[in-house]
């Protein structure tokens, strides 16, 4: 299974942008890059995903390097409610991985007021 | 739209006792997952169902864990007998199909004394 590497923790200030990095040097051509986050005492929730091109949604933006060996999740204006553990996950095709998510340690993001 | 429901939210038992967790997925979601999350780690898949059939139970400790999804809707996960190392949060997730995004429930926090 492909692996990702993320910093254990990051700090940000409220209302400032946050860039959460993820390295995935062994990514294969069929792997999608998914981001989930887990707020305290809750189950993980979907944030965003992409394959090759940068992606935007109402929660965040995903910037994918041209060689796809790294990606960055961008929160444009951090709020206190964004404090969570953020997981970067490589999701292979269903015929290969069956649909499951393989979580790493994630990055614990703290937001200071 | 109602989310994934789980009960109980918390359970404390003695080692060697039995325990069962219940999950009600989002209506219409054919795929159901049980994950185990030990404190400080990312969730790890225990079992995946497609309707009422098992797709992947390779990480399920079958000598003590069992799960079923008899009518392809609700699911139960049982541990018998429990060990100290089973202390964890048990997360249920569902998706429309194996390629779809996961929707997680709030989890059941199990403490084995």
- Tally of DSSP β-strands of chain A: 9
Would you tell me the structural class of the helices and strands of chain A? mainly beta
> Which word captures the global form of chain A?
globular
**Are there runs of chain A of 5+ residues with pLDDT below 50, and where?**
none
> Overall 3D geometry of chain B?
globular
Instruction: Calculate the mean pLDDT score of chain B and round it.
Output: 96
Oligomer: heterodimer
Number of helices of chain A: 1
| Most extensive protein-chain contact, per-chain counts | A-B, 19 and 25 residues
First-last Cα distance of chain B:
37 Å
The gyration radius over C-alpha positions of chain B equals 13 Å
* Total beta strands of chain B: 11
Distance between the termini of chain A: 38 Å
Please compute the radius of gyration of chain A using only Cα atoms.
14 Å
Low-confidence stretches of chain B: none
Total number of helical segments of chain B? 0
| Major sheet: arrangement of strands of chain A | 1-9-8-3-4
Q: Briefly note the structural class of the backbone of chain B.
A: mainly beta
SSE arrangement of chain A, N to C:
EEEEEEEEHE
List keywords for this structure.
heterodimer; A: 113 residues; mainly beta; five-stranded mixed sheet; 1 helix; 4% helix; B: 113 residues
Quick take:
Chain A has 113 residues and is mainly beta. Chain A has 1 helix and 9 strands.
Written account of the structure:
The complex is a heterodimer of chains A (113) and B (113). Chain A is mainly beta and 113 residues long. Chain A has 1 helix and 9 strands, in the order ββββββββαβ. Chain A has one helix spanning 94-97; strands at 9-13, 18-23, 32-38, 45-50, 55-56, 61-64, 70-75, 84-91, 107-112. In chain A, the strands form 2 sheets. Chain A has a 5-stranded mixed beta sheet, with no helix packed on it. Chain A has a 4-stranded antiparallel beta sheet with strand order 2-7-6-5, with no helix packed on it. In chain A, strand 5 and strand 6 (61-64) form a beta hairpin. The radius of gyration of chain A is 14 Å and the shape is globular. The model of chain A has no long low-confidence stretch (mean pLDDT 94). With 113 residues, chain B is mainly β. Chain B has no helices and 11 strands. In chain B, a hairpin with a 6-residue loop joins strand 7 and strand 8. The mean pLDDT of chain B is 96. The A-B interface holds A 36, 41-46, 49, 87, 94, 98-106 and B 4, 31, 33, 41-45, 48, 55-56, 91, 93, 95, 97-107.
């Amino acid at each position: 299974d492909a692996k990702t590497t993320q910093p254990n923790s990051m700090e940000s200030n409220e209302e400032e942008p946050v860039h959460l990095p993820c390295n995935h040097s062994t990514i294969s051509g069929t792997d999608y890059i998914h981001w989930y986050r887990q707020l305290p005492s809750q189950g993980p929730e979907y944030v965003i995903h992409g394959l090759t091109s940068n992606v935007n949604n109402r929660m965040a933006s995903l910037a994918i390097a041209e060689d796809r060996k790294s990606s960055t999740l961008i929160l444009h204006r951090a709020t206190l409610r964004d404090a969570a553990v953020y997981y970067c996950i490589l999701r292979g095709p269903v015929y290969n991985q069956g649909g499951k998510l393989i979580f790493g340690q994630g990055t614990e993001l703290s937001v200071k007021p | 739209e109602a989310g994934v429901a789980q009960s109980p939210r918390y359970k404390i038992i003695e080692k060697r006792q039995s325990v069962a967790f219940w999950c009600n997925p989002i209506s219409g979601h054919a795929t159901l997952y049980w994950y185990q999350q030990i404190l400080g780690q990312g969730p790890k898949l225990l079992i995946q169902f497609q309707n009422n059939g098992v797709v992947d139970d390779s990480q399920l400790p079958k000598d003590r864990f069992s799960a079923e999804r008899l009518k392809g809707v609700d699911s139960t996960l049982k541990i018998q007998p429990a060990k100290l190392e089973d202390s964890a949060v048990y997360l249920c997730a569902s998706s429309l199909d194996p390629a779809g995004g996961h929707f997680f429930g709030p989890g059941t926090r199990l403490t084995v004394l």
